[in-house]
Amino acid sequence: MERDNQTWVSEFILLGLTSDRDTQVSLFVLFLAMYLVTVLGNFLIVLLIRLDSRLHTPMYFFLTNLSLVDVSYATSIVPQLLVHLLAEHKGIPFLSCAAQLFFSLGLGGIEFVLLAVMAYDRYVAVCDPLRYSVIMHGGLCTRLAITSWLSGSINSLLHTAITFQLPMCTNRYIDHISCETLAVVRLACVDTSSNEIAIMVSSIILLMTPFLLVLLSYIQIISTILKIQSTEGRRKAFHTCASHLTVVALCYGTTIFTYIQPHSSPSVLQEKLISLFYATVMPMLNPMIYSLRNKEVKGAWQKLLGQFSGLTSKLATP
């Protein structure tokens, strides 16, 4: 259709990672396996937290939210990626592209804010343990979780609206694995400086601000841990934060590298690999990190497996 003498496309073509057919089939098998592990791992974490009363604490309430975000984020990108790896036609309708950008960008923003909230939770647990249950009460935890979901969603809605009001003219080839903000903005046949400014402002507000809050929280946490006299006490205090700190390093590191400076961003291939890491590897790793590095989760797994084994034995007994 015509609008302001510009041609607007109704469908985009995602160029993806490679055009080699054998490589596409191999990648399909790999990413399908990773996606299934992601869904299963995060579902089991949520189920475990639900079933074990010892995990009904603020930390695991936020971890449940994180698992839901991870599964949703992977689902917003990976199924489409799998279809395009096998399909001859790599097209994605305009509205589907806009929806994918909205959900992936929104869920990414939610995760950044949620990690900052989890850092605050760890700060209170280590620095003010006697008042932890008073400060991190159910009402506050619910409000913090809602704030995370709303802030990411509102930011994504604004970005999606700004991005897709740009005229793409006849350029409909997106050199990316998904409808990612920078990749779509590059298609515009008008000046996009205002969009780049919006990306920068959004990065500062929704990425750097939570990152700074995480940084400040861990400065206080480390300072408190160093004041603990016993080695065992310091080890236990650090252990309560180790899983979250690992996830923070992986999550913020890759995303800051991609988005914080659009004008000096990495190459297109690097952007694809970073986005792929964030869509396939991170959601798969998070349940593993929290399971392998957390004694409470490992204990809950052992208890659940023991109950399941006992139930199986009873059923097998004639």
TrEMBL record:
Annotated Pfam families: 7tm_4
Question: How is this protein situated with respect to the membrane?
Answer: Multi-pass membrane protein
Secretion signal, residue range per the UniProt entry: none
> What sequence ranges are listed for the domain G-protein coupled receptors family 1 profile?
41-290
The family assignment reads: Belongs to the G-protein coupled receptor 1 family.
Tell me a GO cellular component.
plasma membrane
Q: Which CDD domains match?
A: 7tmA_OR2F-like
Q: Report which superkingdom the organism of origin falls in.
A: Eukaryota
**Which residue ranges does UniProt annotate as crossing the membrane?**
25-48, 60-78, 98-120, 197-219, 240-261, 273-292
Q: Which UniProt keywords apply?
A: Cell membrane, G-protein coupled receptor, Membrane, Olfaction, Receptor, Sensory transduction, Transducer, Transmembrane, Transmembrane helix
Q: Where the protein is mainly located, per its record?
A: membrane
Name of the gene: LOC101968334
One of the record's GO molecular function terms: olfactory receptor activity
Enumerate the subcellular locations listed in this protein's record, separating them with semicolons: Cell membrane
Tagged with keyword Nucleotide-binding: no
Q: What is this protein called?
A: Olfactory receptor
